Structures are given as C-alpha cells and as structure tokens.
Amino acid sequence: MASVESQYLESGDFSKYEGEWVAILDKKVVAHDKTLTKLYDKIAELKLVRTPLFHRMPAKNEIDKFIL
User: Is the pLDDT of residue 49 over 60?
Assistant: First the structure.
C-alpha cells in the first residue's frame, strides 16, 4: 500500500520545485530547498512529530527517481 505522501507525489503539480528537494507530509510540501542538507536542517527546525517523505523533483530533461 502506498503512503498518502507518495500518492500525493504522483498526482500533484510540483513544477515550481523543479531541480529542488521537497519534504511532503499530509498531502502538502512542508519545506523545499536546492540541497538535501539544507532541506533536512529546515525540517529539523520544524520539529515535526512524523518524518516527511523526501524527494528530489527532477529538472527539465532529467529522469525522475524515487529514493527509498
């Protein structure tokens, strides 16, 4: 069974995040940044109870890959 976050990732429009890392939780992007390190720092500051799904949105002409 796919998580709510991964289903949202498959159906949402994330074009404004091309080439960036996003953190998705409860069907929304809770943070984004160009580097995974900076994104992780932003998430740590939010002190979330649950861990979001991290995913890099491909830039134009890039192949999309999931990180598991």
Answer: yes
Number of alpha carbons in the 13 Å side-chain half-sphere of residue 9:
22
53 DSSP β-pair partners: 24
Instruction: Give the separation between CA 57 and CA 9, rounded to whole angstroms.
Output: 10
Q: Which amino acid is at 4?
A: V
CA–CA separation, 23 vs 8, rounded Å?
Answer: 12
pTM of the model: 0.80
pLDDT per position as a tens digit, 6-24: 888 888 788 899 999 999 9
Rounded CA-CA distance 42/61 in Å is 28
Number of folded domains in the chain? 1
Q: Which domain holds residue 37?
A: 4-56
